[in-house]
Structure formats: structure tokens, C-alpha cells
Amino acid sequence: MLKQISFFLILGLLGLSSCTSGDGNAEASLLIVEEEIPEVETAYGIPIDSYTIHQGEIRNNQFLADVLLKYHISYPEIDKLVKAAKGVFDARRIVPGDQYTVLSKRDSTGKAAYFIYEPNALEYIVFDLRDSVRVYREEREVTEVEKWAEGEISSSLYESFQSIGVSPVLAMKLSDLYAWSIDFYRIQKGDHFRVMYTERQVEGEAIGIGDVKACLFTHSGEKFYAFEHSIDSISDYYDENGNSLRKAFLKAPLQFSRISSGFSRKRFHPVQKRWKAHLGTDYAAPKGTPILAVGDGKVIAAAFGKYNGRYVKIRHNSTYTTQYLHMSGFAKGVKNGTYVRQGDVIGYVGSTGLATGPHVCFRFWKNGAQVDHRREKLPPSKPIPAEHMEAYMAAIELTRKQLEPKKKPMLASN
Ligand SMILES: [Zn+2]
Question: What's the 278 CA to ligand 1 centre distance in angstroms?
Fold first, then answer.
């Protein structure tokens, strides 16, 4: 809490002396006086050498008056103080357990000159009780310190972080930045993470998590890199190839296709010959055309149904699920539980089930309800621009190596 401050006072004296010599030229002279001022001990920005310091903690049912009366501040003065604090701090809001400091005069009165209240590790409120009462709020300097954490998933991401003594806030940040590629509700035992982040510190004490700087999350044996990078002072997360981690879905599950029937709440069904809702979008294409996963996710069904024919259903994250109907066949390896990446071939166009001709019926769920994916507002997904790519690759090179899992997981390290 106490800071030693020493400083120099530089006095610049610029004296212009006019001279009345015969040539009439004025002469300028510059004089610099450098003087060392003795070290002053300060706390909360206040020189404290003439005060006695008392530190304490607000106890249960203790009010501001209870503290200040002990240091010879009268009720009328306290009243004045509470009024002066208006807009800065509500003096009725002092909380048991919070720290305070009283600086009292070293004279016969022993009267408090300052009362400093600390509502949190970051801020403090100074009640200046000398001549005219003044109340102001100050903020301590926050430093961001680089930290590393590594661990293996045993149960949930949240619990895994708790077990290695890392704030679960970090788990939340990770699930946020990986929201488009990893479904953290479905992570598995054995998944592994190594993350570099910043810790916010005030005078050497941790007060919270800053930002995730880089992470390697290994999920179902697949590696997911994330690097924070700023372009034109806008920071975002990118993978090892410079692609945005916020992956919007592909516009269509086929590379070349035409929409043969759009999403509608009511349409005339060509096979059933009656009006019914079509909660999907049909893309017509020749039989055997590859069908692509529109986003990263886990296959939760690769099955056959009387109406749907051969179909694949993919859960992308806690919000979105997609389904692809009437396939002639599944792509190799695509089955329940397979993890697929955006653009991976999952099957081939066909007309199995209730279909008039070869097409894929694409269905899109948002929070359990079928919606028209072409109307969904999805996050922007811009990669590192070509002109910044070289600089980006150079910037992540070392960090990428440092993200390789160390031999011993399950520990948090500095
Ligand atoms: Zn359809």
C-alpha cells in the first residue's frame, strides 16, 4: 500500500536580459536548476509522514459513523461528509469485510484527517476531512500479467478449471471464443487445453482475468487453435491459418446448386399433393453431388427414415443444429458421433425417402425451432486480410509452439 516516491524538480528559468551594448543585440540566457526533493512516503496518493495510520475492516452492523466517531469526527461533521460524498459514494453502502484506513493527526487531538474506504481491490474512496470536507474516488493502476494454464477435461470445462485453481471466468471466455467450433456442453473426458491469458493485477494481487491471448484446445483428437490478433486496433480470434474463429455457416450445403424450393410455412407438397409447411430449403443437384457440412460440429444422427431417406444431422453448438435429407449415401466415416469440420463432405445427393428427384433438403434449427437459415443474422467471419497474413503468421509462430501440451497436464503454471 505504501509507495516510496522520489522525484526531481526541474526548474526551467528562461531569463531574457536585454543589453544596451552598442551593437543593440539582445542576449538570451537559459538557466536550469535541478534540485532533489527528499523522498516522501505516500499512501493513496497522500503524503503520510505526519499521520498515524490505522487500518481495519468494516464489521457487521458497523456504520461510517461508528468508525469515524472513534477518531473524533463529530456527528455534524459526519453529516457534512455524507452530503459531500453524494454522487461519488453512498456512505450508507459500506459493506462488512471491506478494508478501510484512517490517517489521524499526530497531535493532541488525534483527529482523523483522512478516511479511505476500499469497496474493491481496484478502487478506493478518499474522504478528506481536513478544513473543507472533500470526497473523491481513485482507481489503482492495473497491470496485465501473462499466465498459462493447462489441463485435461475430467467432467465439465467449468469444473476442470476449478480443479486446477483457475478462475471459471476463463472457462466462460473459452467457451465463448470457441462457440462456433466446439460444443462445450458435449466435451469429452480426455479433451485437453493449454491456454495463455492475462491476469489483471493491482499491486501484485490478482483481481480478475483479462483476455485469452492464445489457446490450443484438443477436442475428440482434433486440434483447435485460437490466437488473439488485432488488425487496425480491432482485436479478434483466428486459427492457425488466419481464419476467423467466428465461423458463419456456409450459405448452402452444396457447392453448385439451385434452390428448388425455399423455406415456407405453407406450400403445396409435390408428392403428397397437399398444402403443408416446408421447414427446409431444397437444393437440386445431380445424384452423387457431394453434400457439405455447413459448419463444424458433431454428427448426432446418420440414419434412414421413411420420409427423410438417408439423412445426417449435425449439432454445431448449443444454439444451432442442421440436417441434410434424401442422401444417396453417407461419406466415408460419417456416423453418429463423428466430428466434422465446415466444408467436409458428409454425404451425396440422392432421392431416398419422400422425394421427386435428386436434391438435398436442408434443415436448420435455432434453439430447437426450425428457421430459414437464409434469414439468420450470423456473426461476420472475416479471415486475416492477405496483406496482413505474413505478419500474422510471424506473430503467432512462437506462441503456437508454446501451446504444445506439456508432459504433465492437470496443473496451472505461470
Ligand atoms: Zn425439402
Answer: 6
Q: What is the CATH number of the domain that holds 88?
A: 3.10.450.350
User: How far does residue 248's CA lie from ligand 1's centre (Å)?
Assistant: 22
Global pTM reads 0.62
The verdict on 353 and 287 lying in the same domain is yes
- Does one domain contain both 369 and 262? yes
Given CA atoms 205, 207, 212, 218 in this order, what sign does their dihedral have?
Answer: positive
Distance 354 CA to ligand 1 centre (A): 9
d(CA 180, ligand 1 centre) in Å? 25
pLDDT tens track for 88-127: 998 888 899 999 999 999 988 889 999 999 998 889 999 9
Query: pLDDT tens digit string along 381-412?
Result: 789 999 999 999 999 999 999 998 875 544 44
Alpha carbons 260 and 294: distance in angstroms, whole number: 19
Residue 246 Cα to ligand 1 midpoint, Å, equals 28
Dihedral angle computed from the Cα positions of residues 144, 147, 152 and 156, in that order, rounded to the nearest 10 degrees: -20
Whole-number Å distance, alpha carbon 381 to ligand 1 midpoint, is 28
Which of the four pLDDT bands, split at 50, 70 and 90, describes residue 50?
Answer: confident
Domain residues for the domain of 203 are 154-247+404-413
Distance 282 CA to ligand 1 centre (A): 5
Q: How far is the CA of 349 from the centre of ligand 1 (A)?
A: 13
The answer to whether residue 387 is domain-embedded is no
Q: Do 274 and 337 fall into the same domain?
A: yes
In angstroms, what is the span from residue 296 Cα to ligand 1's centroid?
22
| 175 located within any domain | yes
How far is ligand 1, taken at its centre, from the CA of residue 259, in Å? 10
Whether residues 272 and 370 share a domain: the answer is yes
Ligand 1 center from residue 281 Cα (angstroms):
5
Q: Which residues contact 386 (CB under 8 A, 6 or more apart)?
A: none
Domain count, the chain: 4
Which residues have a Cβ under 8 Å from the Cβ of 162 and sit 6 or more positions away? 168
- The residue from 139, 174, 205 where one domain ends is 139
Supply the CATH number for residue 330's domain: 2.70.70.10
State the distance from the centre of ligand 1 to the C-alpha of 279, rounded, in angstroms: 7
